[in-house]
């Protein structure tokens, strides 16, 4: 497993990050999660991503328990704050109160003294940006957080935070952005990627497999696999079923010979594609089985030729979404490549 520098920071992250959104605490139990974590470590993955809102804290607890006994300095643990973790008026957002309390709770659940990269999970329109930035900076000064990041922020929101941090004279700055990014969903390319390249912010791209669509497991006109996310419990089906359509699935099948010619599976091709994009430091991939972890990990370190990238674009065509206006709306917006199952 190769490692890359996160933006212009000195932090090195493995090209594949193990993430536990929609898995730990929802789709997998403790033993299954532990086996996946072991597989990740065996594959050379050193970066692990979670958030306080995942399974309402259960994901952080499982990750913390699974990493016990592993040398802490060899790991990079990222977590996030902003989305609702309770019913109270202060159990959400990026106020100083919620940031400070959520960080302490995450540290307890993760069984660690510090979080390597602490990210603002979404932008908070209610809270002044300076309040958020000062709270984050204080956590860095206290040694509870080492680096700061954002997730699903627009380019103007990121730029305003960078400007404000400079005006306030804060020593800590944003070094990472965690966006949804894959062959189909490229909305960060027009505005966010150029800004981040200029400002030294690295991408920790999640959903490189488009919720499993780009693995080829969902064949056009076929029943979904029993052990897939589309047939799973919890919130997974609501996320995956909204993007499964005949046109999309047929196009994904057309990618199979391109992957085979490169000696890759469809999943490995999808991961290699994201890692080939400018500014990407790591791809965040979840798994419910150790075998999936191993396959995903081998998608790293596989550079793609320009001809392969061109053929991918030709196959996907109009299914590719590059609309920057959809940044920060991925939870609500139906992607342009989503079609009816019939």
Topology:
Elements: E1 3-5, E2 12-14, E3 16-19, H1 30-42, E4 47-49, H2 58-66, E5 76-81, H3 96-110, E6 115-120, H4 129-141, E7 145-151, H5 155-168, E8 174-178, H6 192-199, E9 202-206, H7 236-240, H8 246-254, H9 256-261, H10 266-275, E10 280-285, H11 290-297, H12 306-316
Helix pairs in contact: 1-2, 1-11, 2-3, 3-4, 4-5
Organism: Streptomyces azureus
Protein name: Aldo/keto reductase
Family: Belongs to the shaker potassium channel beta subunit family.
What can you tell me about this protein's structure?
One of its GO terms (molecular function) is oxidoreductase activity. InterPro entries: K_chnl_volt-dep_bsu_KCNAB-rel, NAD(P)_OxRdtase_dom_sf, NADP_OxRdtase_dom. The chain is α/β, with parallel strands linked by helices. The protein has a domain at 3-212 and 274-302: TIM Barrel (Alpha-Beta Barrel), CATH 3.20.20. It is built from twelve helices and ten strands. It has helices at residues 30-42, 58-66, 96-110, 129-141, 155-168, 192-199, 236-240, 246-254, 256-261, 266-275, 290-297, 306-316; strands at residues 3-5, 12-14, 16-19, 47-49, 76-81, 115-120, 145-151, 174-178, 202-206, 280-285. Helix 2 (58-66) links the parallel strand 4 (47-49) and strand 5. It is globular. Mean pLDDT is 89; it is low at 236-242 and 330-342.
